[in-house]
Structures are given as structure tokens and as C-alpha cells.
Amino acid sequence: MEGTPARVEQFHYDNKIVRAFAYASLLWGVVGMLVGLIIALQLVFPALNFSTPWLTFGRLRPLHTNAVIFAFVGNGIFMGVYYSLQRLVKARMASNFLSWFNFWGWQFIIVLAAITLPLGLTSSSEYAELQWPIDILIALVWVAFGINMFATIYKRREHHLYVAIWFYIATWITVTVLHVVKNLEIPYSLTMSYPVWAGVQDALVQWWYGHNAVAFFLTTPYLGLMYYFLPKAANRPVYSYRLSIIHFWALIFIYIWAGPHHLLYTSLPDWAQSLGTVFSVMLIAPSWGGMINGLLTLRGAWDRVRQDPILKFMVVAVTAYGMSTFEGPMLSVKSINAISHYTDWTIAHVHVGALGWNGFLTFGVLYWLIPRLYNTKIYSLKLANIHFWIGTLGIVFYAVPMYWSGFAQSLMWKQFTPDGFLKYGNFLETVTQIIPMYATRALGGLLFLTGIIIMVYNIWQTAKQGSYIGDELDEAPARQRYHSGVKEYWHKWIERRPTQMLLASLVLILIGGMVEIIPMFLISDNVPAIATVKPYTPLELEGRDIYIREGCVGCHSQMIRPFRSEVERYGEFSKSGEFIYDRPFLWGSKRTGPDLHRVGGKYPDSWHYNHMLDPESMSPGSIMPPYPWMLENDLNTSLIGSKINVLRMLGTPYPEGYEEIAQADIDKQAAKIAASLKKDGIEQEGLEKKEIVALIAYLQRLGTDIKKADVSAN
């Protein structure tokens, strides 16, 4: 195939950037799991919220998810890519500057997230909570990573691209598309913005993004790491090259369609729900193809698996991937989703993937990688084995109680007496029943965190006893022009062409996104109008933004599904036309507290005031934290004009010039609520100027735009 023998070239791999990302992954892993343990304990001991704004469950939960996904796993991705890519293409990274810009930029983003989320600066979109200036920084860092990766691929000494690189390419282009589309927003201040999408459309875009953030940030890059590091650790070739081809192309095409399965039985049109279900069920085939390819790579090496903690971590990781990718399609079937959605079953499902698949594969890679960077052996195989068993027990003690509590929640929510009444009409009855499961879940989190701390010590001692290799020497023949004199397998052609592989991946992932999203904006029948639905008043808008700031959507849904149990408990089921002015949508993913979509007018203003001051005074046994600062903080309305201008630009029908009189409307509505509170015996100076009044205005508005007589309009 080649002419004259190629000249052998010497070069150095850059291990410094690999080590930096490895240590960052370890650091943020400890931080992310620690925050997770804190919020798990807050559900058992509400006093651990400390009545402090930046330490409440609602503000810490997005910090935990971002720390685990983007800090721990994100740094793990970069660690694995920077190490494996150089060796797969036989070339040093193209740009040291871009490598370190990637590293320090990513850490800066994480620090900004750690500051802004506890301060309540959030967009409220799950896995995309960071605000618009940080979104721009994320895009810059991600593009820098992509340029560096492709420049390295283009200067490669190997003709063909190994399977891991296929997954890296698909990851980069898909995450780019997801990030841009999801974060189309218009700022109304230096830190805050409103999304261009609203209501049902925002919900579809959010879960097209959210599900595929799991798919293309937590899955495809880690599959690339699996295809490189598992064969390396086992010292065996990948089981099937052809299966890896089917796995790759089928996975990236099917995955992008599955997002709507997060919105089954909601106000999303049935056709979109059905598409999500069909493709989610189909997804099990390529997913299990990858799992089988990984596990069968270890054929003939099972004696080593019993001895080697690295392989133990990797086997459990791949098995957890298989479990999660079986359970995901199963939860996408409507009859099963009717049981699981809004319960802790979903929490268990997510954490089997996060702790088992991402966590354990990261640990296995770190235990394999660090000794090679320091030209030594693992300091203590015994400690690594202890970490494995403690971590495995941690996953079991986390997941099993959450499955248990999820089943308990669903059964209790739906159970009726022989006379036809809800058996557990008080939502808190379901909460108090599952607190022991929450306590056991916290124990599982503690075990998992303990395992990471043991690993940190083991890695530190490993580095201490070794000799660090910052620039690793290697040699390979220079790449010559490729000439094939024989007929070859069709896939070999695209494996030599990274640009074509990038474009093919882009086309495949765009098909599903366009088919699902575009009709939602072009066909008005998908969101029928309801004449009685009006925009929020300025005070209600301010209250809604406070609700978002405090992370209330983390525990409360605003979506009543068309089930008898939900209609009996909460009121008329939710209609798509009710959400046309909701930016962002707030349907929620979990009910730790009751649904709030029809809470408007259900309680007097004073009930909400006292509930925020001391939740147990209104709901004995509540695990909701108090929010006394809402009663103390003056309402800041300085941005109301900017908010109205941006919303009008996005289609909310506020009259021209309304921003000039919005403050007067705020004062009028606030005075009315303050008078209502005083009538019920709440004496507080300057009550009409406090944040609590705005929040009450918003809560009392929820679900009041339609009555049963208006249902036919939808």
C-alpha cells in the first residue's frame, strides 16, 4: 500500500495537561459528592439548611449536579481524551496554549458556577442552569478544545481513526449544537436573561438538550474512553470492530430523538411524546451492543478481573451502563413512566449511571493512568480494592432505597379508598413515609464519598513514590499519502477522513432534532391558544423570578397530568396554552413537595406568608426549609423595565410604553396583598416592599387563568 519506507520520527506526548485534568477531576469529584451528601442530609434533617439563602437545598442541588457532571466528569473527559488521542494519532497535541486555555477556562467556569448558583443566579433549566455570560465562556472553551483536537487529528501519523476518536468527534459537534440551541436567550441585565423559547416549546428544547447532555456528555465520550482504556487495562483487543461501527452510528442517530420521553403525559403534543417513546425503546439495541462489546473484550481475562481492582471498576462501570440503558428505554414506555415520573425512581436511575458508569470508569482510568504518568505502580492495591467495595456498597445503599421510595411514592399518590377518595389526600403523608429511605440514601452517599477520599490518598502516595514523566518520548513512521491497492471495507474510507466523519455525525444528529423541534414552532395547533391566558403582572413576574432564584422547581412541579389521582389531588389537568408566557417553563422533574400548578386561590395570602416563614406551622412534618429572608429583603424592581422590554421583544403582549407604568402597577398590587396580610393579623412594617409579597402574587396567580368552562378552548 505504501511506497518507500517512511522516515521514523521522534516526538513527545504532553502528559502535563493530562495530569492537570486528572487532579482537577479528583478535586471536583470530592467537592461534588460532598455537596450531594449535604443535600441528601437536608432532606432528612431540614435544619441543615441553616436558614441561610446560599445553603438551601434549592440552591445547592444545581451546584451538586453541575459539579458532578461538568466538573468531575467533564475534567475526566478531558483527561482521557488528551491522553488517548495523542497516542491514537501518534502526535503531540497541536497547541500547548489551547490545551491550557481549555484547562484554566474550564476550571474558571466551574468556580463561577460554584459562586453564582448558591447566590441564586440560575436560568432554572436542568443541566443548563448557568447564566448567559458563563454560557458564552463555555462556548469559547469548548470551541478551543475542538480546534485543538481536530488540529491534532489532522497532523496524525496514523491513517485510520480508532473507534474512540469517532466518539470524541461526535461528542464535540453534538455538544456544540446542543449548547447553542438550548442557550439562545436575551439578557435583561449583566447576569440574567430570558430564553427565546417559552412554555411547551421551551420544555421540548430543554429535554432535547437535557437528555442529550446525558447522551453526549456523560455517555459518548465515556464510551470513547471505554474503547481505549478497557482494552489497554485488559491487554486485549476490542471484541468486535464491526459491532463498534454499528454501536457508534446507530447510537448517535437514535439518541438525539429520545428527549421527549421526559415529558410523557404532559402538555407536550402526543406525536412528540410518541416519537420520544419509539426511539427510546429502539435505543436499547445500540446501547447494549456497546456494553456487550466492552464486556466481551475481557473474554479470557476473567481471572485477571478477580485480581485487578482497575478491571473490577471497569467491569462494574460497563455493567452499570448496561443497566441504565436498559432502564431508560423501559421508563420511556408510557405505562411504566406513569408510575416512575416525578418519583425517586428517576433519581435512582440517574445515579446508577452517574455513580456506576461515569464514576467507576473514571476511577478505573485514574488508577490505570496515574502510575504510568509517574513510571511506577499503584501505591496500594489493597486500598484500591477497599475503594472498589466501599464504592459498590455506596451505589447499592443509594439506589435501592431510592427505588423503594419511588415505588412507595407512586403507589401512595394513586391509591383510593373503596368510597372513591384519595387514601393519602395529604401529600405530606407520602413524604414522612420515605424519610428512612432518604437517610439510607445519605449513608450510600457517605460510603461513595469515603471511597473517593481513599482514592485521593492512594493516588497521592502513588505520585509521591514515582518519577513524573511530563514529556513522554515516542517514535512512529511519518504518515505518507495513503494508497490502497485492494478493495477495502466501506467504513475504512470515512475512518481516514475526520472532516467527513464530523459532517456525517452532524447530519445524523440534526435529523432528529429538526423533526421534533421545527414543527413545534411552525404548526400553531401544537400549542392551541386560550383567550383567558394573560401575561404575568409586573409583581407576579418579580415573584416568579424569586421562585426561580430559590430553586423551588427542584422540589415542586407545575404540571398536572391527566390521571384521576392527580386531578382529584390538584385540580384540572394542565393545558399547553396555559404556558405560552412562561420563560423559562417550570414543569419540574421531581415532586418532593406537591404540584403547584393550581395552587392559586387555594390558600389565603397569610398561609403563604407563614408557610415561607415556618413551613411546619402550616404543614406539620414538612421537610421544606424556611425562607425568612424573603420577609426581610426589600423587593428590587430596578430591572422591571428591562424585563418587560425583553419579554415584549420575545412576543409577550405588553403594550408599548408599559414599562413606564409597571412600577405603579407593582405598588398597587403589592399594597392589596399587604392589606390582606394585615387583615389576617400579620403586622410588619413596610410589608408591601418585601420580596414575600411578590412571591405570594405569583403563587396566587398559578393555574387561575382557566376554569373548567374554558377547557374546550384547548
Describe this structure in words.
This protein is an all-alpha fold. It is 62% helix and 3% strand. Strand 2 and strand 3 form a beta hairpin.
What keyword list fits this structure?
4 strands; two-stranded antiparallel ribbon; two-stranded antiparallel sheet; single chain; mainly alpha; globular; 714 residues
Describe the SSE topology:
Blueprint: E1 8-14, H1 16-42, H2 57-89, H3 96-116, H4 132-154, H5 163-182, E2 185-187, E3 193-195, H6 199-217, H7 220-234, H8 241-255, H9 270-282, H10 284-296, H11 302-307, H12 309-331, H13 334-340, H14 344-373, H15 381-414, H16 428-465, E4 471-477, H17 490-495, H18 498-522, H19 538-549, H20 564-570, H21 605-613, H22 615-618, H23 629-632, H24 640-649, H25 662-679, H26 691-701
Antiparallel strand pairs: 1-4, 2-3
Number of helices: 26
Give average pLDDT, whole number. 94
Principal-axes shape call = globular
Helix proportion range: 55-70%
Spatial ordering of strands, largest sheet: 1-4
How big is the Rg?
A: 27 Å
Could you spell the SSE succession in H and E letters?
A: EHHHHHEEHHHHHHHHHHHEHHHHHHHHHH
- Spans of at least 5 consecutive residues whose pLDDT stays below 50 are none
* Largest pleated sheet: 2 strands, antiparallel
Strand percentage: under 5%
Structural class of the helices, strands and pairings? mainly alpha
Instruction: Report the strand count.
Output: 4
Head-to-tail CA distance between termini: 67 Å
What's this model, at a glance?
The protein has 714 residues and is mainly α.
